[in-house]
Amino acid sequence: VPENDEIFLIQLKSVEGGAEINTSRNSVEIIVKKNDSPVRFIQNVYLVPEEDHILTIPVVRGKDDSGNLIGSDDCEVSVSYVVITGNSTAHAQQNLDFIDLQPNTTIVFPPFIYESHLKFQIVDDAIPEIAESFQVMLLKDTLRGDAVLLGPSVVQVTIKPNDKPYGVLSFNSVLFERTVIIDEDTTARFEEITVVRNGGTHGNVSVNWILTRNSSDPSPVTTDIRPRSGVLHFAQGQMLASIPLIVVNDDLPEEAEAYLLQILPHTIRGGAEVSEPAEDSDDVYGLITFFPVENQKIESSPGERCLSLSLARLGGTKGDVKIFYSALYIPAGAVDPLRAKDGILNVSKRSSLIFPEQKTQVTMKLPIRNDAFLQNGAHFLVQLEAVELVNIVPPIPPISPRFGEIQNISLVVTPDIANGEIGFVSNLPIILREPEDFAAEVVCIPLHRDGTDGQATVYWSLKPSGFNSKAVTLDDIGPFNGSVVFLSGQSDTTINITVKADDIPEMNETVTLSLDRVNVENQVLKSGYTSRDLIILENDDPGGVFEFSPASRGPYIIKLDEHYWVVLTSHGERESKLGSATVVNITILKNDDPHGIIEFFSDDLIVTINESKGDDTYSAVYGVIRNRGNFGDVNVSWVVSPDFTQDVFPVRATIFFGDQEFLKNITIYSLPDEIPEEMEEFTIILLNATGGAKIGNKTTATLRIRRNDDPIYFAEPHVVRVREDETADFKVLRNGSVDVPCTVQYATMDGKATAREGDFVPVEKGEMLVFAVGSREQNISVFIMEDDIPETDEPFYIILFNST
Prior knowledge:
Distance between the termini: 93 Å
Number of helices: 0
Shape: flat
Helix content: under 10%
CATH class of the largest domain: Mainly Beta
């Protein structure tokens, strides 16, 4: 039974004998995990038409009838199936009526996959058939995995009746080719009128028929022919049946009498159909089409060019058939008959051909004029316009002959067939330079031909143009004319032009390269792409080289607010008359920050130093630069922030720049204080520039003083009680880095106990403890003297000083 997770609870309810139930552990939960995944079809019946399509049959696992998930789904499940058919006409036959598209007969569901599909190809044939069925069954014994087989596990697929399985009844088409004539004097029984059962012949069918006069004669039919009606029966498998007529032989002279014999569609029994009076069937006079497609082509050879077209007459080949067609040449672009161009084909636009009786294939060739120009990408459009019977006039208007699917054919003119349309690849000017390192340089100018059929020679010329055309000679560029050859099938070549070097100063020189003509009529020059300008850029300094004379090369220094004047004076042997305005004053005002922009020099804006110790003094130097102008005397102030720590000196000052001075230094010293400190950071700020100067962007610098004055101190206990004639021992510790040696001085200091009275052995100033590299601990010992004098507690002190 397919089930999802089920939870059961076992709980202790009561106990006897004095025991108690632990309420925190009185229940157990049992979970039965989901199991028995169902495997089944979604539905058990499929009714499909006989069409060329694929039937898809879903198979599901792990879903109930409503589509909800149930049962296990975390493991692989597989099941096999079998296709069941029979041997009767009611059973579809595998590989004839349907095809199993699976590579094998095992359906596999990977974990968490809930649906798979079986696919069967329904074969569309032309055989009349009644309803046919086959079954697909899931096999319980082949089920693998945590799954159960549920219904529906069998699917029945029924292919609907098709292709007129019970037949289509109609008079034999031979009867329509001529009027049926019965000679009363020689025929007593006439059985040549037959009804044909086309299509399928399944089952027993019947149809009523009736005979009526086809004239104004009011007398009963039975006076001449009996019976006047009847029922025509077809047994299963029977395709032809005759209508028996008895001719009444009387002695009355009579004219020919016309009768109409009909089968009645509404009287049909057994599922058959009655067709309309037959015109012609199965395209008895032919189905005309372009076929095969690969035989429709443009043929080109040195001797001739033509359209080679192949027409097929499918179906029947009775009678001669005349086909009317049109053939148009349409230049490259939209394939529109209104764009058609005359003078290409050697035939008229519209023409015809005859399909003789019994002939199934006709090939025709439409010649192309030898002098016609075929453009690359153009089309030949051939259209079948009308078709008619020539030597047969059927009594009933025929359906055929008629045109098939391919009634129009468009043949594109490909490059290998097209005539050449030759031109430059661009019409833009080509810029050339006179060679500098070589005496001459060859420039290749590409030519392109659209359409590569046949050989062509192109003649070209090179002519100077522009304002200085007379200056261009063969010493500059050449040759001035020539030709290039396109071989058959070749689409690209080049014109080679040589540019020559000289030492003559020249302006821009322009020459025009033109395509003049082609040696064959069916090759043309491409409009708009027959010329290109070649421009040799000016060379060898045609305008001369200008520079200041040696006497005027300076350098010149412009001062602030300098005054100049321009004076007109007479020149030459004869004195000129001057007016009153002969002097113009010119004052060059100060500009472009003439007094400078003051800022820190870009390098070393952050300086790190040690704290000064004893005779070792450390300082940081900062460069201050005066950019742009250096005119005049200017000042700039600077301060250190913070300025109250007494760690650096000085903390503010003013820098003076004299005229033309542009670089000064700020020097700041670190001060000793014997105070343990981490790294300290100070900011030096430039401010208050005077004298017209400005402060630049780099107005701050940084000073860092490394961590210093690692402490040296007494270890606990700080107070030691000792008796006379004993030693007082103290331990001195060193913090911080031990990478370098250091020292500290110590001395005793009197309290109530004094060295002068002989209480202890004094340590004078200058005694030193030395901490070697790696050492963090040293000891100090002071001896207490025995004096036999009664005394109370007397303290004295030991001090540390001058650490390094």
